[in-house]
Amino acid sequence: MTATTDIVQKLWNLCHVLRDNGITYLQYVTELTYLLFLKMAQETGVEDQLPQGMRWADLTAKEGIEQLTFYRSLLLELGSKASSLRVQAIFANAQTALKQPRILSKLVESIDKLDWYSAKEEGLGDLYEGLLEKNASEKKSGAGQYFTPRPLIDCMVSLIKPQAGGRG
Predict the structure, then answer these.
(1) Which of 7, 27, 84, 101 has its CB 3.0 to 4.6 Å from that of 68, i.e. a possible disulfide?
(2) First to last CA, the chain
(3) Rounded distance, CA 79 to CA 70, Å?
(4) What is the DSSP string of 135-158?
(5) Residue 137 pLDDT exceeds 70
(6) d(CA 11, CA 6)
(7) What is the rounded distance in angstroms from the CA atom of residue 131 to the CA atom of residue 124?
(8) For 130, what's the count of Cα atoms within 13 Å in the CB-facing half-sphere?
(9) How confident is the model over 64-122, as pLDDT tens digits?
């Protein structure tokens, strides 16, 4: 089992935690994407694109209802006031369906404990693809379909800048 496959399985296990708390299959990837983006910014040394006080360590430093309240405000802040347009695009209109502080705490603690070093060597994009593949293979999630979150689509289009009639 590769490091990426192992991490995808651990992340997918977190989806069961989400499901047991009323989060739908279609919301799994979106919920985890926001948290993974924050963690990956830390892991890859690009946290300078995030405002001070709105980073992974700031989220992990809080507990209980304070952490959930902070997380909700962090999503709003990054979607509207981040200095990087790319970050704003990813977090545009971001919100969480999480209602219980203990669930956010479980997600944050679990993501923080993962060994990201080996996954970086294999490619972090594979993690996202692995989650999408797991989601698509779940019968309850929409018969093998998955949906890319709208903010991610908008960000990709903005970065690629496709032209009418263009190919590739």
Answers:
(1) 101
(2) 33
(3) 14
(4) HHH-GGGTTT-----HHHHHHHHH
(5) no
(6) 9
(7) 12
(8) 21
(9) 999 999 999 999 999 988 778 888 888 988 999 899 999 999 999 988 988 766 555 55
Copy the structure tokens of residue 75. Answer: 């999503």
- Looking at residue 5, its pLDDT comes to 74
DSSP 47-107: GGGS-TT-SHHHHHT--HHHHHHHHHHHHHHHHHT-SSHHHHHHHTT-------HHHHHHH
Q: CB within 8 A of 105, min separation 6: which ones?
A: 63, 64, 67
**Residue with the two structure tokens 């695009």:** 89
pLDDT category, 144, cuts 50, 70, 90? very low
What is the CA angle 55-56-60, rounded to 5? 125
- Tell me the per-residue pLDDT of 14-32, one tens digit each, with 9 for 90 and over: 777 787 778 876 677 788 8
35: exposed, middle or buried (Cβ count in 10 Å: 0-12, 13-18, 19+): buried
Structure tokens at 36: 């993974």
